[in-house]
Amino acid sequence: MWGGRFSAKPDSIMTSINASINVDKRLAEEDVAGSIAHAKMLCEQGIINEVDCDDIVEGLDKIINEIRHDKFHFSVELEDIHMNIEARLKKLIGGAAGRLHTARSRNDQVATDFRLWVKASCTARLDQIETLMKALLSQAETHVDWVMPGFTHLQTAQPVTVGHHLMAYVEMFSRDFSRFADAIHRMDECPLGAAALAGTGFNIDREMTAEALGFDHPMANSLDAVSARDYAIESLSSIAICAQHLSRLAEELVIWSSSPFSFVRMSDAWSTGSSIMPQKRNPDAAELVRAKTGRANGSLIAMLTLMKGLPLAYSKDMQDDKQITFEAFDSLDLSLQAMTGMIETMTFNKENLAKAASGGFSTATDLADWLVRDLNIPFREAHHITGASVKAAEEKGVQLWDLSLEELQAIEPRITNDVFDILSVDASVASRQSYGGTAPVRVREQIASWKERLL
Ligand code: ARG
Asked: What is 359-454's CATH topology?
């Protein structure tokens, strides 16, 4: 491509380090779409003639079909996807192929291809996040009033409902959804026509190519257009945050499905066995979703580091952006699908959940609150009385509600029989009716509002 200036061939290691074709061949669809839009615009503007334009478009159509059907030979010597396609075009249509690169550089070409790819991939992840939210929503609805322990420090804290717990993730994933949606909105501008860095002297129509490629508008500054990769960074940060939510949920599935907990059973389709211990059902998919968070974080840091300190405009460093980004999108793709499959097919164990919900004196706060509300005892004092009651129950090896009125009155004489109405797990859960609280009446509202938005 630049033979005019050079007399010797590149070193073979130079060829290897310089080539990106094995990675950026994934941009073939975007590259051909960008080239067709560019060729048609050049023709419309009278920069190339119609015969050449038709030949170019026809040739590019043929090339993308070859690529789709695995009939295209990718060559490392031709460095990247752009030059592989252009070289093939030259073979197919001859001289006119050389006119395609008028008023264009690989710098705006790759910026356009990559932006198109990232935008489409963000859109695909949006759909997957929504599917996962629907799976969570459906399980939440089925188990809206099933009780389970709520934890802090992974110590039993207060009872909650399974529906409430699952809806917490719907909220988290909805924010991931909006992060991707925001990123898409911000990246929705077209770099094509920025040429190498300074724009071009040809009378091009950047509105036309932007529109043809589905962008909202052309980018306003040609230096920025070829240099910007913040859209990739923003996507990677959305990926890292989403992966982090997935990882917390995955961790819960690992804990919940472990035999001492046995809150849930992962379906056969999403479990693996052990080659030595026949009884095992391992939550491998959940563990791998948890593991992939590390890569997502790594990709974000890699990309931030890659771009840090690069002077304007293009530097070859930026060629390495693709592998990092592709990998992160791919692993989020798998993770979202795996998590959706696990959530859809897992079954909850009502009995174990209820038993655990009533363990660990989970309604102690309800007792303290009752002392405050019904007996007008200051909370700090109520806390102390409740602590003594828990201690008494623990020493006796019983639950709070198994203590007799006399035993409770020995701790605080003002306690009445009414206290037994509020000590049960169901009463505790039903009482937490503050906005966003765990009471089934509130959780049903949360579910209804999400159903309206999602279904
Ligand atoms: N393969 C290159 C990349 O992905 C294309 C741009 C090359 N531009 C250049 N000035 N060498 O970044």
From this structure: Ribonucleotide Reductase Protein R1; domain 1 (1.10.40)
